[in-house]
Design brief:
By secondary structure, the protein is α/β, with parallel strands linked by helices. The chain contains 13 helices and 18 strands. A 5-stranded parallel beta sheet has the order 2-1-3-4-5, sandwiched between helices. Helix 1 packs parallel to helix 4, helix 7 packs parallel to helix 8 and helix 11 packs parallel to helix 13. The longest helix has 24 residues. Bound molecules: iron/sulfur cluster.
């Protein structure tokens, strides 16, 4: 039997593409293995949003050269954001790679894989444990061209999947035991703009909320300039849509936001946050911030810091700016903040956020919350609240995929520890 190995780096969109590819390969008789050395087909799903991610892919590609020399029959494919229009350049640099596949062209690899399996005798496949959660892309690409971002060049313009197709996919996932779906897009608020009947994300959520068996719906990422009041009201009104919104501000300073071409001011962003918190009082908000953007002065950084301190997000993903060749910022702006200063700004925000996060999670101690059990981590069960907080607990029975009530005993900044309230609950769903 053919064995495959997929290595993934980058955003949830890449993880979703890899999950989908793995599931399709399993459907045609392939078996997933844990190590590249055991595989007949190796897929690297790459990311080039940050230099550090691209470096890891390059490193992985060069490590695989020796394997390919030893076993030339192994199929090696590269997909993800690193596969761009310069295919000839990639082929020249990595001649040991057999397939370079743009993210939406994974079917080419499947067709090839299918051809290979038709020559093999089928073999018994071990039963795979079904994950209770799944990522479902609803829109590909992005039309925004933020000055620091490579995504629109690599993933192309926005292309929404028809609502009927998404609903059918999620109904089928639900039939197979999936309890929670996360709808993915670089900008989910643009969903439907390119479809003939122009449905929007609210319309899609309304439909998905009616699917039997599905317990939770999440979506990411939202864009502050595109998030509508209709969507906020929809999230507030639908029982299956989780109270968690990922809304990257990127900076707290208006001049930097303008240079980033984000399309909103910090005042507009804060007004949006206030409207969301008014409509959905228990909402958990995640933010993304870039520090050390070209010309970011210490005063401008301080404004970002003060904004985060005042608005207190549940999570903040902070990244140091690094120029990505081909972007507007890399062409027109000098990367002029010293690396030590960038690291210092990163550390300050991380320390601030750790204090805020622990303050927020500590308030949950003693409370009972609903969690969905996602799997095992060491000797504990790993689960997640509706507000996207990780909760670990011990229990002898199998809890995978169950919705439980857990009393929170202990809080750390990034996760919680708890105890299931009654063991009866473990058999209810
Ligand atoms: S919205 Fe901006 S940051 Fe997000 S994918 Fe599009 S261009 Fe990149």
């Amino acid at each position: 039997m053919n064995r495959f190995y997929i290595w993934t780096i980058g955003c949830q969109m890449n993880k979703a593409d890899s999950e989908r590819l793995a599931s399709n390969l399993e459907n045609i008789g392939y078996r997933q293995v844990e190590r590249a050395e055991e595989a007949d087909t190796i897929v690297l799903n790459s990311c080039s949003v940050r230099q550090s991610a691209e470096d890891k892919v390059i490193n992985k590609l060069s490590n695989l050269k020796a394997l390919k020399r030893k076993r030339p029959d192994v199929t090696l494919a590269l997909t993800g954001c690193m596969v761009n229009s310069n295919l000839e350049g990639l082929k020249e640099r990595y001649p040991h790679v057999d397939f370079f596949l743009k993210p939406q062209k994974l079917d080419d690899l499947l067709a090839y894989a299918e051809e290979q399996t038709s020559q093999d005798e089928p073999e018994d496949t071990p039963v795979q444990v079904q994950s209770p959660t799944a990522y479902v892309p609803i829109i590909h690409g992005c039309n925004n061209f933020c000055s620091f971002c490579i995504v629109p060049y690599r993933r192309g313009r926005e292309k929404s999947r028809p609502m009927t197709e998404i609903i059918a996919e999620i109904e089928s996932l639900s039939d197979r035991g999936v309890k929670e779906v996360t709808l993915l897009g670089q900008n989910v608020d643009s969903y439907g703009n390119d479809l003939s009947d122009r449905p929007d994300l609210s319309d899609l959520l309304q439909e998905l909320n009616q699917i039997d068996g599905l317990a939770r719906i999440r979506f990411l990422t939202s864009h502050p300039k595109d998030m509508s009041q209709k969507l906020i009201d929809t999230i507030a009104s639908l029982d299956k849509v989780c109270e968690h919104i990922s809304l990257p501000a990127q900076s707290g300073d208006n001049e930097i936001l303008k240079a980033m071409r984000r399309g909103y001011t910090i005042e507009q962003y804060c007004e949006l946050i206030s409207r969301i918190r008014y409509a959905i009082p228990d909402v958990a908000l995640s933010n993304d911030i870039i520090v050390g953007f070209p010309n970011e002065s210490s005063d401008q950084f301080q404004r970002t810091f003060d904004f985060l301190e005042e608005y207190k997000f549940d999570t903040v993903h902070v990244a140091v700016y690094s120029p990505r060749p081909g972007t507007i910022a890399s062409r027109k702006m000098e990367d002029n903040i010293p690396s030590t200063e960038k690291q210092d700004r990163l550390r300050k925000i991380e320390e601030l956020q750790e204090r805020i996060s622990i303050d927020k999670t500590s308030r949950l101690v003693g409370q009972t919350v609903e969690v969905l059990v996602e799997g095992r981590k060491g000797n504990k069960w790993q689960s997640r609240t509706r507000s996207d907080k990780l909760v670990f607990f011990s229990h002898d029975e199998s809890c995978l995929g169950k919705l439980l009530q857990v009393k929170i005993d202990h809080a750390g900044p990034w996760s919680l520890q708890g105890t299931p309230v009654t063991s009866d609950n473990l058999c209810t769903k």
